[in-house]
What does this fold into?
Amino acid sequence: MLHALKVGSPPDWENAPNEFEADLAALDRLEDEALWKVATGHKTKEEMARHFELLECNKEHTLTSAEQVELAELRSQADLFMLRKAHAAALLHWRGHCVPHL
It folds into this structure.
């Protein structure tokens, strides 16, 4: 209770895009150990390689319609991934942990 009075309320997820609100809200219920895993998580090399490959093709205007859909999905997944990382880090900080710039 004293901590909440000193630092205010936990980080707000309600200003996030609607499609991500439920995922961010679910983080509020995680234990610290699980939040650390989210905050320090990384995409796999394969995921990153495919995303960059599609971005490169997009610059060259050579994407098929299926690849355009795949790129849009990868962008959405990347946005959610980064929002989850940032929200997890903010929650850990709010809970009193020293969170380095991840």
Helices lie at 2-7, 18-27, 32-39, 45-59, 65-94. Residues 20-94 form one domain.
